[in-house]
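Working notes for the structural subgroup meeting. M.R. asked for a predicted model of this chain before we commit to crystallization trials. I am recording the input and output together here so anyone reviewing the notebook later can reproduce the run.

Input as submitted:
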Amino acid sequence: MAYKVEFLPEAAREFEALDGSLKKVAVRQIDRIAERPELGEPLGKRMGIDLTGYRKTYFGKKGYRIVYEIQRKKLVILIIGIGKRERAEIYNEVARRLGQLR
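Returned structure, recorded in C-alpha cell form:
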C-alpha cells in the first residue's frame, strides 16, 4: 500500500526549484519511498545535528538528498527537505526547520 506524500512548504519550494531533469529523478525516488518507506537510510546524530527518527534517500548521482519522516498512523511520508548534500547543507537546513516546528 502506497503512502500519501506531503511536503513542508519549504520542501515544496525546493522541489519546484529543481531543474527539469533533476525533478524527474526526484519524482521517481519519491514514488519509490511512497511504496516502500523503509527504503531510505535512517538518520541519526552526526556533525552536531540530531535527525534521529528521520530518513534520507538520494538522487542526482548522490549529490542531492531527500529528508523525510514516516508517519505510520496517517500513512504519510512527510518530505522535510530536498537539497544538496555538499557541506551538509540540507541537513543543517532541515535541523533549522525542525527546530522551528518543535
